[in-house]
Design brief:
heterodimer, A: 680 residues, alpha/beta, Rossmann fold, 6-stranded mixed beta sheet, 17 helices, 17 strands, elongated, B: 2 domains, globular, NqrB/RnfD (chain B)
Chain lengths: 680, 341
């Protein structure tokens, strides 16, 4: 006898399963229209590949998987695609979502399909491809693509494959009916999964309130080595984490996957779907759905084509809308209410519950929480629901995370047990959504901040470089002007000619010797500042992500900054030497060099001051300084034109004015964008 | 019928807060009956007069706070407070003493903090301590138990409450008092000479304690609260008494059994320490909370200024409950450790 473990908490709500087990599984037939939502699973929605007006056959792919975590959809019956549009879907929010609508022709004409004759001879990855192609997503409720869940990480080993036949929710008997009527198929499906996963042991976990199902499974399992494990009925033992603890005594690490502890879990209905896909080549186009509750006259289990409108099913089951107070898809503990009966049955629809007011009364107003702790006793995750409620009311999100809100599986046991009838789970759902939204917002603003800062740095650097170049040009122009002037003023033409020749020679030497040197040094400064830029951005990102590389990156940034400073120093030294020791070392010569340096310093200081400003203010400030510079440049240009200076100088000045105008235009656009963003 | 749009779960268990409160009220019955048997109708008069006042003040407070009295009175929490305070007060207390106590409990300790569920301190114990500090004479005037003195009738009980000036009742120290004052006699001699002492604890008191224990066990059976806090409380108190008890010298502080069956021990263990609102919430937290109350009760009883100590010990630990909660968070599924990260 296998050792059975217990999990913390749990409750024993009335089971109410008998009502829907009176009759064998019935066929729900072909409705007039089938509505196939493109997203019936967790992951990317499928992409339709049929056109309106196209005739489709039963089992034909009508939408392809939209990504790795996704599945395709198939036509559940033959007919014509009459629309691809938004229709009501079964969703807690009452959403509409894109669906393929098929007008059935009633002929139920299959696309030719065959199964795999000898699957043990086929590789697991090929079988997984078949499972994916068959559109199989977890049929227990979450709808996670089965092939993704079954795929093993390279090198990982699986100790235990668990088929979840617990069905712990009250009212639901879809899996129970499968066990009673299709036990051999369940075992066949389990064999296929075993072949794919290669576990040390394969278990089928079933609560002890399904003795007939257990007996049928045990008979079908024979000596296959698949063990049917029976354990005491307690809600929510069918929760994946709880079932794993019951059967193995191990807990799935918080935030981890069952695979982390060598366990793979699949739902019983999914197992049968896998069998149908591999042995018959039949995609997932129908499922067993329990229809129950006192507002239906013929409760029971129905084999339903996916996409069948709920109204069709309700009619079949003898639904009395006047007696029904709410329509629940799923069970009474975790199901959600539907408001539109046009919504279709999807891959995860295990139950439709139509209770009367007496059966599941309208919740009364909540009374005060007296912190009695019944919720904590019931919680299967060992949380403190009363504390979580307290923090949720106070919007203390940090405290909520400290108290492991995200380990809540939303099973509803706490709300069920609460004597004050407080809708605890509702508070937790809302808080989770709020925290997730905050995280997204934070990430987004962090990203925009980094992007903005990087841009500002780049703009400032470009401005600096341009300023430096402009200063260099100016220096060259003035040098020439001065040469011309000195030449004109000289009284002794011979002396002047000698002087000129000397000066020219010296200038040539200087130019030959140091122009390239300056270029090199300038290039070094630019490179170093670019590197510093990149390194700082990386550091910021690492900080934002809380990476452990922060320290290493910090060192890198410091080193780069030192290099930059060194390069700048070298450049400044060189310029100083050039200014002081050069052949044309007059005061007027030295000034532009210093001015260039001063401009760089000024720009740097301005940039530092700008760091605290809002983007809009920064842009505005930049615009102002640009306009001032433009005014200056225009004046200088006018002066030099008036003074009849050399064409080259005038041209250079004109070019500089042009550039400034372009810049102003760009900055104005930026400013307008910021203003729009802020107003928005 | 328009379909409801509500979130899961759709089913609800059978437990409700009014039911919890009514069961607590019911569970005090054996203790109240035993007290009435030994001390007369004084306790019942306290309870009835206090209950009336409590419901009136609760309605008033709810109205002032803009809450519907009709809905919130249903939780019966005001009645529970009144019954607990009525039991704790000396029988034959004057009407104003009860009134001050109830007003402190309902208005000060409960509604000023936001009503049921938001009060950090046990309202009945706040009422009790306010009275004990303000009116020590009236609060220590206990009637002698049946067998030691005359037990007044119903009429005298009503007179004592509503016309205290015309009532001249006999009062006497409680056994805990006597033990505290004793500094020369061996415990055995004290026991022999004083009819106030019964078989294990105080005469009459021991039976009242046993009756409250029975009520408490019934509540445990009904799963109204868990065993952790009361058991930890009783165990810590008994352990302290056992450690200090030296077999019966005048400084021995009383035997473990004496402490378990004297004063408000059992009443406190099952009706005060178990107050969910003001206690620690986790299992480990409740063990710590109960044990520390037990320790404090012994310390105050034996070395403190007051003969009984449940009210003070409980209020002190009410202070500490959030702190205890912080450090006793259970280990969540899938986590390696419990407590705050």
């Amino acid at each position: 006898m296998r050792k059975i473990f217990d999990f913390h908490g749990g409750i024993h709500p009335p089971e109410n399963k008998r009502q829907s087990l009176g009759e064998p599984i019935r066929d729900a037939g072909i409705p007039g229209q089938l509505v196939i939502p493109l997203s019936q699973h967790i992951g990317a929605p499928s992409a339709p590949i049929v056109a309106v007006g196209e005739r489709v056959l039963k089992g034909q792919v009508i939408a392809e998987a939209g990504g790795f975590v996704s599945v395709p959809q198939h036509a559940p019956s033959s007919g014509t695609v009459i629309a691809i549009e938004e229709r009501p879907i079964p969703h807690p929010s009452g959403f509409r979502a894109p669906c393929v609508v098929i007008e059935c022709d009633g002929r139920d004409e299959w696309l030719p399909h065959t199964g795999i004759d000898n699957y043990p001879g086929v590789s697991p990855s090929e079988l997984l491809e078949h499972i994916r192609e068959a559109g199989i997503a977890g049929m227990g409720g979450a709808g996670f693509p089965a092939a993704v869940k079954l795929r093993q990480k390279p090198g990982a080993t699986v100790d235990t494959l668990i088929i979840n036949g617990t069905e712990c929710e009250p009212y639901i008997t879809a899996d129970d009916a499968l066990m009673r009527e299709r036990a051999a198929d369940i075992i066949a499906g389990a064999e296929i999964l075993r072949h794919i996963v290669g576990p040390a042991e394969t278990l089928i976990g079933v609560e002890d309130n399904k003795p007939e199902g257990i007996a049928a499974l045990r008979a079908a399992a024979g000596d296959s080595g698949i063990e049917v494990v029976e354990f005491p009925t307690k809600y929510p033992s069918g929760g994946e984490k709880q079932l794993i603890e019951i059967l193995t005594g191990k807990q799935v690490p918080s935030g981890g996957l069952p695979a982390d502890i060598g366990v793979v879990c699949q739902n019983l209905g999914t197992t049968v779907a896998v069998r149908d896909a591999i042995l018959d080549g039949r995609p997932l186009i129908s499922r067993i759905t329990t229809i129950t509750g006192e507002a239906v006259a013929h409760p029971g289990n129905y084999e339903v084509l996916l996409g069948t409108p709920i109204s069709h099913l309700l009619e079949l089951a003898g639904y009395d809308a006047t007696r029904n107070n709410r329509l629940v898809m799923g069970g009474p503990m975790m199901g959600f209410t539907l408001t539109d009966t046009a919504a279709p049955v999807v891959k995860t629809t295990n139950c439709l519950l139509a209770p009367t007011e007496a059966e599941l009364p309208t919740p009364p107003p909540a009374q005060a929480c007296i912190r009695c702790g019944l919720c904590a006793e019931a919680c299967p995750a060992s949380l403190l629901p009363q504390q979580l409620f307290w923090f949720a009311r106070g919007k203390e999100y940090e405290k909520l995370e400290e108290h492991n809100l995200f380990d809540c599986i939303e099973c509803g046991a706490c709300s069920w047990a609460c004597p004050s009838q407080i809708p605890l789970v509702q508070y937790y759902r809302a808080s989770k959504a709020e925290i997730l939204q905050q995280r997204r917002d934070h990430d987004k603003s962090e990203q925009s901040r980094l992007r903005f800062e990087a841009r500002q740095e780049r703009l400032a650097r470009e401005a600096e470089e341009k300023e430096a170049k402009r200063a260099a040009r100016k220096k060259a122009a003035e040098l020439k002007a001065r040469q011309a002037a000195t030449g004109a003023e000289n009284e002794d033409p011979i002396q002047a000619a000698i002087e000129r020749a000397k000066a020219k020679k010296a200038a040539q030497q200087q130019a030959a010797g140091s122009e390239s040197e300056v270029d090199k040094l300038e290039q070094a400064v630019v490179t170093a500042s670019k590197r510093l830029q990149t390194a700082t951005a990386k550091l910021e990102q690492a900080r934002a992500e809380g990476s452990d590389l922060v320290d290493a990156l910090q060192t890198g940034v410091d080193k780069t900054r030192a290099k930059l400073e060194k390069a700048e120093q070298a450049l400044a030294d060189h310029r100083a030497a050039q200014g002081n020791g050069g052949a044309l070392s007059t005061g007027a010569e030295a000034a532009p060099v210093d001015a260039a340096q001063a401009a760089i310093e000024k720009a740097r200081a301005a940039r530092a001051a700008d760091a605290d400003l809002s983007p809009r203010d920064k842009a505005r400030k930049q615009l102002e300084s640009l306009q001032q510079r433009l005014a200056k440049s225009e004046k200088r240009l006018a002066d030099s034109r008036n003074a009849g200076e050399e064409d080259k100088i005038v041209e250079a000045l004109e070019a500089s004015v042009e550039r400034l105008r372009d810049k102003i235009a760009a900055t104005e656009t930026e400013l307008a964008t910021h203003a729009a963003a802020e107003n928005h | 019928m328009a379909l409801l749009r509500v979130t899961s779960p759709h089913a609800h268990g059978p437990m409700s807060t009014p039911k919890v409160m009514r069961q607590v009220l019911l569970a005090t019955l054996p203790g109240v009956l035993v007290l009435t048997h030994f001390f007369g109708f004084g306790t019942l008069v306290n309870i009835l007069w206090g209950g009336l006042l409590a419901v009136a003040l609760e309605s008033l407070a709810l109205k002032l706070r803009g809450r519907s009295p009709g809905f919130y009175l249903k939780d019966c929490s005001a009645l529970v407070t009144a019954v607990l305070l009525g039991i704790a007060l000396p029988p034959y207390a004057p009407w104003w003493l009860v009134a001050v106590g109830i007003a402190s409990a309902i208005l000060l300790a409960k509604h000023l903090y936001g009503g049921l569920g938001y009060n950090p301190f046990n309202p009945a114990m706040v009422g009790y301590v306010v009275l004990l500090i303000s009116f020590p004479v009236q609060m220590t005037a206990w009637a002698p138990p049946r067998g030691v003195g005359e037990v007044p009738g119903l009429l005298e009980a009503l007179l004592a409450c509503f016309a205290p000036a015309s009532y001249d009742g006999v009062t006497q120290a409680t056994p805990l008092d006597v033990l505290k004052q004793n500094n020369s006699l061996l415990i055995g001699d004290l026991w022999k000479d004083n009819p106030l002492f019964g078989r294990w604890g105080g005469a009459g008191w021991e039976w009242a304690n046993i009756a409250f224990l029975a009520g408490g066990l019934w509540l445990l059976y009904r799963r109204i609260f868990t065993w952790h806090a009361p058991v930890a409380f009783l165990a810590a108190l008994a352990l302290m008494a056992a450690l200090i008890y030296d077999g019966g010298s005048s400084a021995s502080g009383g035997s473990p059994l004496f402490h378990l069956l004297s004063g408000a021990t059992m009443f406190g263990a099952f009706f005060i320490v178990t107050d969910p609102v003001t206690s620690a919430v986790s299992v480990r937290g409740r063990l710590v909370y109960g044990a520390l109350i037990g320790l404090l009760v012994y310390v105050i009883r034996v070395w403190g200024n007051y003969p009984d100590a449940v009210a003070f010990a409980v209020l002190i630990m009410n202070f500490a409950a959030p702190f205890i909660d912080h450090y006793t968070q259970p280990r969540t599924y899938g986590h390696k450790t419990g407590g705050t990260r």
